[in-house]
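Notes from hallway chat w/ T.B., transcribed later so I don't forget. T.B. wanted the structure written out for a chain they're using in a teaching module, and asked if we could keep both sequence and structure tokens in one place. Agreed to drop them here.
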Amino acid sequence: KHVQGIGRISQTFGFSSDSSEYSKVTSLTKKIAKMFKLFVFCVLIVAITADHIDRDARILDQRSDVNPDGSYQYSYQTSNGIAVQENGVGGHLSQGVAQWYAQDGTPITLQWRADENGYQPSGDHLPTPPPVPAHVLRALEWIRTHPQKEEPVRRFF
């Protein structure tokens, strides 16, 4: 039944289930689904951190554009100071910024980029790693100035 269903879908959109077009559409659909999950995750983060904020907040501006090539952009702004902007290409790149106010009134700005190198958030409110110890810095410098010599490969037949 599953294969027949795919066949019907394939015929509806004008390509056979064994064509490369079908693979491209399936791949793009999976990428868009992943980006939608990331979008939902980001919205949940904002919602969780905003539990103290005015529950009667209104959406002042909301825009969303999803293109056939998988690229997208969206933004929204609420009456209680939350603003989010994001753009990207489904499955390849997502970048954006979210702004809101902490419970003490401090403005928070979170920027992010998600690509082949993973999720990379940045913001003044995020914790920073401790400094690299001096002995590790010295060791790295020694390694840099003393490159490993390549030895000829010995083959025994």
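Follow-up for T.B.: The mean pLDDT is 82. Might be a good example for the class.
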